[in-house]
Amino acid sequence: MRSDQRQLLDTVDEALKRVLAGGFSFISFSNYVKVAVASNYADALGNSPFHLSREEVPVMAVFGWPVRSGAPFQYRFRDVMNRLEDAGITPHWKDEVIALRVKQNRADASKGQDGNSPYEAASFKQLEASQDLVLGIMHLQGAFYVLLFGSGIAFLTLLGERHYRTR
């Protein structure tokens, strides 16, 4: 990429509008862009006109927990924080915070407080009020139980026939 093609934009919304227009790519912090796209450009089902990469470039973000030197809980606190991170709880919390922020942004947009949303607030209400439901594995769980039950009965019948045939 030539240096004269790189641009510094003031807002994420401005950059996302340029991406929609075509011929422009945007690289920024993933959490901020996820919130902006989900709040302003995605429908109620989560579909958006953007492709967000699943791979992220790690950026060193260090958070400090200042405690008094030699505090009796210092090592235990660090151990608990490491366990929370290793268990995947902190990314789960991050996803919950993002979802809550998106929900708040959409609520503000539906009230008409956010006038710069590219989608109309009425379209959000229509999509959320829609009775269409996308079926997933959880919805088909009963069918799998019936299949498993039927396979079990068939197997027991096979065993019974084999047992009585050998006599």
Number of strands: 0
Number of helices: 6
State Rg.
Answer: 26 Å
Alpha-beta content class: mainly alpha
Helical residue percent? 40-55%
Mean pLDDT reading = 76
Low-confidence stretches: 117-127
Q: Give the amount of beta strand, in percent.
A: under 5%
List the main descriptive attributes of the protein structure presented here.
single chain, 167 residues, mainly alpha, 2 domains
What does this entry look like structurally?
This protein has 167 residues and is mainly α. It has 2 domains: 130 residues, no CATH class; 33 residues. It contains 6 helices and no strands. α2 packs parallel to α4. About 7% of the residues have low confidence.
Draw up the topology in text.
Blueprint: H1 12-21, H2 30-40, H3 74-87, H4 89-110, H5 121-129, H6 141-165
Task: Please give a quick description of this structure.
By secondary structure, the protein is mainly α. The protein has six helices and no strands. The chain has two domains: 3-132, no CATH class; 135-167.
